[in-house]
Amino acid sequence: MYVIEQSLPGALTADSAANVLAKWNALYDAYNEVACLMLEEGKPVAAYVLQMKGYVYQLERLGYMLPQDLIVGLILNGLTKDFAGFVRNYNMHNMGKTVGELHAMLIEYEK
């Protein structure tokens, strides 16, 4: 189970400053993209992982750090059934790889 230690900013009110509202919306949109992104059938896994890495980087720029194991878990959860064997093997051996290492492993598996 993964726990996000940083909470999203509190609910905004009608009199919130425009820059606070813009930052909150950007953070929410980036977090939502990371949490909901899935690999499309027939699309290369490399592009999917790069897109996830981009969203994570965007969250980091906004001051919202995700733990490495959570990022890896989100990437694995977004894979199609074609990668079920890979995910099962990865979880059984509790590999604890970085996102970059996982990216290389997924590209190799896809071949």
Brief rundown of the structure:
It is built from 5 helices and no strands.
Describe the overall structure:
This protein is mainly alpha-helical and 111 residues long. The protein has one domain (18-110). Helices cover 60% and strands 0% of the residues. It has 5 helices and no strands. It has helices at residues 18-36, 45-61, 68-77, 84-92, 99-110. The longest helix is centred in the N-terminal third of the chain and has 19 residues, at 18-36. The two termini are 30 Å apart.
Q: What's the SSE blueprint?
A:
Layout: H1 18-36, H2 45-61, H3 68-77, H4 84-92, H5 99-110
Helix pairs in contact: 1-2, 2-5
Q: Helicity level, as a percent range? A: 55-70%
Number of helices: 5
Tally of DSSP β-strands: 0
Output the radius of gyration. Answer: 16 Å
Notable characteristics:
Zinc finger, CCHC-type, 5 helices, 111 residues, 60% helix, mainly alpha
